Amino acid sequence: MATEGRGLWNSLLVTGGYDNTIRVWNTETGGLQRTLQHQDSQVNCLEITPDRRSIAVAGHGQICFFDTNASSPLPVSSFEGHIGNVSSIKFSDDSATMYSGGYDETVKIWDIRASNDYQRDFNHQCPVTCVELNPRKQELISGDEDGRIVRWDLTANKCTEHLIPELETPIRSIAISPDSELLACVNNKGNCYIWQLQGDDLLPLKLVEVHSPFYALKCKFTPDSRTLVTTSADRTAKIWDVSREFEHAGSLIGHKMWVWDCAFSADSQYCVTACSDTTARIWDLKEKKCVHELKGHQRAVTAVALSD
Fold first, then answer.
1. Contact 35, 5 (CB under 8 A)
2. What is the model's pTM?
3. Residues near 46 by Cβ (< 8 Å), separated by ≥ 6?
């Protein structure tokens, strides 16, 4: 089933997982285009740099960069500094700065055009599970295994606030809506907490039991900020309508194991999910139907990135 002209034309879609590979897919046909080798470890997370020149892959102890246009299946550079698993990476809009979090209890900041060494780091005092950049201000927000959400002022170089939605319940994912109005997080109890971003303040808005009692693994807003999608150990991704106070608007059903990650087309029409059942799927969000099932990985698919 072709998707040409409906939001995925000329998109760069990549997946990674526990078979130590990154796979690049044709979004129109669902066919495999290239396989990249991540030989040193499993893939924990993926990001495509905003300039679309590189695929950044976080694994164990390092972050590898692959050239999106190169024919070689091997990375062109690597950034070492974390000890143990790197759990999350983000980029500034100009692709010059990278932010990462890891199980070595640190958040690190890298000027990737100047050096392969990190320039700053923050001590989280607990394994970091996720990081998110606030596009409205110079602020990084991170979550950890103790259930804390920590706000870091990048200008003042310090922590400004700690939030604990639920005691001793690990945060699995954090998302900031593209319009910078909302912050969401999901945790191991399958709950989603939502705050309104108002100046320097976070105003509690809503608690949604998105996948309880199963682990919620990822939360992300669509590019138009109208929808929140959550993924879970319950084998589903669920759709939540922001304008209707996060009313449940449907589920993406078909995966057979844990759904680890999701990504969206720029027009918010399509969602791609990554699953432990060795597949990724492209979904039509409005119809809640699978457009393509992406097969090729030999083990769990844990990460997905999509750039139009």
1. no
2. 0.95
3. 14, 15, 16, 22, 55, 56, 57, 58, 303, 304, 305
